[in-house]
Write a structure and sequence with these properties.
Strand content: 5-15%
Largest sheet: 2 strands, antiparallel
Number of strands: 2
Shape: globular
Radius of gyration: 12 Å
Structural class: mainly alpha
Order of helices and strands: HHEEH
Helix content: 25-40%
Distance between the termini: 23 Å
Length: about 60
């Protein structure tokens, strides 16, 4: 993963298929939420916790 404060995931990390980015990449490819596993949502976003639907993304932002 990239060092520093940026939460970005490098494409090379995703393609390596190891580490914490692998699960996020699998969720992205399957178009499912990393939090609740829903796959019928159009407005998915990457967050610090994974690839999230709006409901899980707002819950993660609330802390």
């Amino acid at each position: 993963m990239k060092n520093g404060t940026n939460a970005a995931v490098l494409v090379t990390d995703l393609l390596a298929a190891d580490g914490p980015a692998a699960a996020i990449a699998e969720d992205f490819i399957a178009a499912r939420c990393s939090g609740c596993a829903r796959h019928d949502v159009d407005d998915m976003r990457f967050g610090g916790e994974g690839y999230l639907c709006p409901r899980c993304g707002s819950a993660a932002a609330d802390g």
